[in-house]
Write the structure tokens for this entry.
Amino acid sequence: MDFLACGLAVGSSNIADIIVINTCSVTRAADAKSRHLVRMLRALNPGSTIAVTGCYAERAGNDLIDCGADVVCGNRDKAALAESLAARPVQRSSRAAARGSERVRSFIKIQDGCDRFCSYCIVPLVRPLKYSVNADTVVEVVRSRVADGYKEIVLTGTEIGSYSSNGLHLIDLIRRILRETAVARLHLTSLQPMEITLELLALWQDKRLCRHFHIALQSGSDKVLRLMGRRYSTDTFRQSAAMVRASVPDASVTTDIIVGFPGESDEDFKTSLEFCRLMQFSALHIFPYSSRPGTAAAHMSERVNEHIKKQRSGIMLQLAAVSADEFAGRFIGRTREVLWENEVRPGSQIFSGLTDNYIRVYTRSGSDITNTISGTRLLDRSGASVPSFISRSKKRRQGRLWGEVSI
């Protein structure tokens, strides 16, 4: 789905003739957010063409038409979406100026589909066919994005650890990208615990690979993992995380946690909470269990009521905040490479960026440092002159540091 190849400039939704929304349907909340986004963008852009694709579009496209979408395209037809939109009678030439101003990080899908059928997950039902993009194509796209000015390339997909194309696997693809392109930073999305190997981790000797590992957990209780149909135990996960930290110094390890899964008792939750505390994650993404039609978990008994789910989410979020602060605190006084993303407010001269191990950093600069990578000394905010619009937000304080550009 290459919009630029079809003559469609990529820019901001504020000035768009065509708006494309790629939806998720993994939870009820994701569905609700997709519907809200379609309604909001329809109200803000009454004359634009709104196209919706992704898993929600595959599962319940009529819902999105009712919200104001003009085009609904499921996952099976996503590849042809750009070409079909380019054929629509819209004015595109005046929008070309929108390109180029936000080129910091580019996501490249290298794989799609999943056949694991975890008991809670709808993805295998809406993305049933597994495929991997040809390695030559991926390398060429990376070269193109680098030539367009992107500093960081993110390899993404439903399950990138299962990448396989013409006998090449994820390790082979990474090697080729590092060898054959001038990418400044290469970042991987989520991996499964059993996909972490010493051979894979040896690639991180190349400092262009971001030292951030998102490893799927879902629960710190072995009983709940079995109910979920996950193919590993907490011991397997512990060993994988330990391997990462031993092989890649200063690595950030993050994960996803589902709370309130059917059959999760108070004791199971306490076990999961304690496991997450021991793992010392730098970030935790917390999701209350959401029943998805057609999945095995939708028919399970021993439901956890919504009030308890909310309580457990709150407790886990408190741990997430503490863990993020503790991880970031280890780097105070040290210098790390930061990719600066944007000025947080026009004219503020305050810029936001991410270190190579994905700590959020802010700095003050009289010149525009957007889309540059610089060595930055990390400071505790309490000792820095931090603007009130940043410091007053509790959420922004968690796991965030102030930076002083030194190189």
